[in-house]
Each structure stands twice: as C-alpha cells, then as structure tokens.
Task: structure prediction
Amino acid sequence: MRSVLIILVVILTCVSVGRAAILKGPYLQNVTTDAVTVMWETDAPGMGEVEYGQTLSLGKAASDTARRTIHEVRLTGLETEAYYHYRARSGGDVSPAFTFRTAPRRETPFTFVVYGDDRTNPFIHAAVAGQIRKFRPDLVLHTGDLVVRGRDYDLWAREFFGPVGDLYARVPFFPSLGNHEQNAEYYYRFFSLPSNGSARREEAWYSFDYGNAHFIALDSTPSTGGSGPGSEQRAWLEKDLQSEAARNATWRFVYFHHPPYSSGNHESSVPHQKALVPLFDKYGVDVVFNGHDHTYERTWPIKGGRRDDRNGVVYVVTGGGGAPLYDVKWSPWTASARKVNHFCLVSVDGKRLTLDAVDVDGDRFDGAVIDREGARAVSLIDTARAGTGLKRLFALKELEPYGRAEALTLSSLADSGDVETRRAFARVVSRVQDAEAVPLLRRLAGDSDAEVRRSAAYGLAALGAPATDVYVRLLQDADAEARRFAAVGLRVSPDSVAAPALADALSRPDSLVRYQAVIALGALSGRGPVDPLVRALKDGTAFVRRAALSAMIDAGRGEAALPTFLEDLRSRNAGTRQAAAEALGRIAAPAAAGPLLEAARSDADSRVRESATAALGSIRAPESVPNLLKLLRDRDARVRGAAARGLGVAGNERVIPRLVAALDDTVASVRDGAASALGRLTDQPDLVEPAAWKAWWREKPSLQRSRRKAEERDR
Result:
C-alpha cells in the first residue's frame, strides 16, 4: 500500500509540473557585461530552466532547481556586448525565444528609457510601452508607482506585466520604489536587483554600471526610505558616490520617486531637496530622474539652488506612464513642462548625452543635449550660417537643444522673410542663457508670428530678464503660451509697475496665466496690492487658490486671508470645510485655534475633523498641545493619527511618553503618525517602524518615568 501511495504522489507531481503555465515573463533583470538574470512566474510550483546561446540552436542551459512559482535563473560567463537567444521552460510550458544583449564596453554608445507612474490605466501604459519598444533601448529605468497597490497581487498582472507585453523579455528593466508599491513583498519577489549590502533592505536601493555610466536607484518613500543625516541609505549613497566606479564614470545618473524639484500637484519634495541635492552637487551627478507628479518637467542645470549651465544637475520629472495626469505649472527652474503621457529617451555617445521626451504617439516634444566637447554644435552653427532652405532648417532644429551662446552670431536670421526660419531661430535663441541674447529676444518678441513671440517670451523669462514693458504687452497677446511665459517673466523679475496688468490677468480664462499672475503678485513682497490675491482665494481652479494663499503667506499677509477661510469652515460642503481647515493650518494664526478645535471635535465629516486636528498642530497657541493630547484619545482613528502628527510639530519632549503609548494603537495609521512625530521631536531619522521606536524607548528610563506621571495625571 505504501508503494502505491508513493507512485500516486509521483504521478500527481508530474501532472502538476507538466501543467505548469507561464503567467508572467520571461523578463530580464540585473544585466552586466558577463551575466543577466531571467525571471518568470508560473501558476504552479516547479523547477525552471533557461536554454540560451548565441545562435538559434541555443545549446546551453541553466536551471532553477528549487520548486517555486517565481523563477530566477542567473546566466553567467557571457561575452561582453554580445547578443544571445534564450527561452524559459517550466514543466510542459516553453516561452517563445527572445534575444538580449549583455552590457557594452565603455566606448560603445547606448540608449536607455526612463518613465514612471504607469499605475491605474493599463491601456495607456500599454501604448507607452509600445512606443518604447519601437526605439529599441538597451535598458529601461522606472521611477516608481508601477501599480496602484503593491500588496494587491492581481494588480501586478493587470497594471504592470500585462501592458508591457514582451518588452522586458528583450530589454533589461531596473525599477525603483514608489509610494504605491507599499514596500510590498511582491516588489522584492518579482525583481532581482543588485545588492546594496544592507541586512534589512538589500534591494531597496542599489547601483550598477552600464557602458561609461554609473546608475543609482534610491528609495524615497516616506515610511521606509530614510535619507536624512544618520540614515543607512544616506551613508550608503555617499559611499557609492565616492566609489571608484562612480568617480571613473563619464556620466552619473540617479533615479527615485519623489522629485526634489517639481511644478506639478505634489510640488517639490523639500525633505529630499535638503537631504539629497547637496550630495548630488558635491559629487557631480549629471541627471536625476523622478516621478510622483504625473507630468513631464525638465529643469535647467541647478547647483546650490541656482541655475548653473556649466556644473549644475538636470532634474527630470517623468511620471506620465499611465496614472491620471496632473496640471503642471512653471517655476523659475523650469526649462520645459507639459501635461502628457510620455517617456524619456536618453542616448549616450562618449561625452555627448541627448535627452528626448517622447509622447504616447511617438513624437519628440522636448529635448536637451549635454556636450562636453562642443564640436557638433560649432558644426551646426556653420551649417546654419552657410546653408539655405531645408538644410538650414535641419541645422537649426538640431542646434536648439544645445543652448550655445555662439548661435547669437546668426542674428541676421531674425529678419528672415521665411517664417519657418524665424521660428527655428527663435527657438534656438530662447535656449541661450547669456545676457547678450536679451536684445535679440526683445526684437523677436515683436514679431508678427505668434510662435516666434512665444519663443521670445520663453527665452526672456528663462533668463529672468527685466523686460517689464515686453511682458506687460505680451500679457495681452492672442497666443496663450506667450501670455503664460510673460507672466512667468514678471514672476522671476518682479516689478510693481506691472501690478495692474497682473491684477487684470487674474480675470483671464487660462488658469495657468492666472496662476503665474498670482505668483508674480506675491513676488512683489508686499509692494503689490493684496485685494487681487484675496479675490484669487475664490478662484475656480484649486492650484490657483493654493498659489494665492502661498503668495499671501510668503509676503507676510496670511492673516488677510483669515476671513475667507473662517467663513468657508462654516460651509455646508464638506470638501470646502476640509480645504478651509488645511488653509487655516498653513496660515497658522492663533485666532483660528478656537474654530479649528470646534471643527476637530464636532464636525460631521471625519475628513474635516482630521484636517482641523492637523491644522491645530501648526498653530503656536498655548492651548494647542493640551487639545492635541485630548484628541489623541478620540474615537476616530483619522483624528488620532492627525493629533499624533500635530504633536510632532507643536509638541516638545514632554509629549514623547504619550506618543510612545500611541505606538500601541490598534490602527496602523495612528502608529505611523506617532512614529513620525517621534522622529521630528528626537532627531532620529533612521527609526521609522514602531518596533524600532519601542526598542529606543526601553533605553530611556527617565522618559518612562515621565510617562507614568502623565498616566497618573490622566487618571
């Protein structure tokens, strides 16, 4: 009987193995000059095998001998810069044959793609992936948010693996963590990434070399990706940037989710700007890619917070992979910005780098060139000077991304009778960051063609040129883009003479013009009228309202907005009340403490109570801390979490015992709020998990005594 059972088990096992079907993949990971990892998932546990070789007959094989559903086979001993054919096999299922190339030698040109935030809409993601495939890149990087919820297994097929088809069967893929991945185990199971040596989070951040470039992927997620002074990731990053591989690389690229510079809905991530940007400046990073904001934005080269075309770092937000698109505004650091589904295509050829932004239709809508030798730009200028017709137009088009001051010697083209020549030349001049370009741009701003005027307005604004007369005139232009750039120009070179024109612009139908006009009025630092800004607090577009409030606060006029938001706090609409509570928290006037406390205690909507509680933490009023401590015991978990976070702002060392007690709350968001508050009050950036805080607490007997006294007072 025993032998019969054994035979039956063997038969069932064989049937199970034979029926194993490939669900995801195969796909390529962690490619080097002599190795690559092949991964795939099957619907039943079993062993896996990869057949491979440099011809279609394959001839070699590597196996995954463990029985599992997610297979990971490392192919080693490969030739550098060589093409291989391969296929994956599990049980009776065999994948189609695909090809890949190992990493190239330092001198070999290569291309890579960067994109992010493909979650939510698999149809758009599939279209983006289809366009990426047409450009045949050598590798793809991802700035995070691959799926809406990383802990939901089904979404990995629907939103990520399904839409990309067989793209990653041919092109190695290197992701970084976004907040929507939720630090889920699936992320670490589905991907095989270079090790960072961490005992706790080995693949959360990493680096690798490819050609003459050094790539660094970071974890910027708030709950897990500590990058402040003293954090494990920051220590690793600084060491990596000083490594021989990084120092010897011609190009250094960094990518992660939350952008240090962004003009989208989420705006710039100030914590990462403070923690990471100084390291990028110090160690000569060339380009930083981010996501999070579902937009495209490219900055001018920045160093030390200022534009520096020679030594600065270019920051690119590329979050257009499929998530709902956000409005994108314009900031003093912005070189180009657009609300569009897209990806970035980067070509590296020795000491020249070309970055193109490509939309979902395959059209290149923005580009930049970093050329450390410059010979190509000089040749294009000579061609534009001597050439005619299409030859000259093509030379000007290629010259545009270089932004070379030598192009100003082509000034006679500003008077060309051919409108296409004037347009192309205006685009070239608009990218030149040299004061010598201002007279030429002023002349082009009076051109009869709207596209020429638009480029001139862009160039003047990018230079921060004091051209109030031109900007005021262009605020009335028929071209919407020209009006927007004119408002940007008045923002970066504020002039009280322009205040009436800016106030008038607040009545225009274009929300981006109104937004820039609000910022420009705020930039007058109290020299402009406040009434237009108060009116803008009721604007129909949310980001204009937020900008108006920011402008008033920055100009020291925040309390002038109090009546508007105190009235809104009594609105019948819960969304209006919530926005009012958030705004009152930003104003942080003691006069708002009473109404906010009433809303936190008794509003019918849980979200309003949460926002009002959070706002109390921003107000420096004597009663704020006692009230927050009471709200820390509220029956509503939203309120308790907001109270914990608020104590991190308004509290001091005395509230630490109460926050430690909140680490035992039954709701995770409250525990996370308490941990966050403890981090602010104790300057312990590397402690993020409640368990780590409890271990820290056990080593603080004096504070424990304070907790017992607090509990006695409560009783």
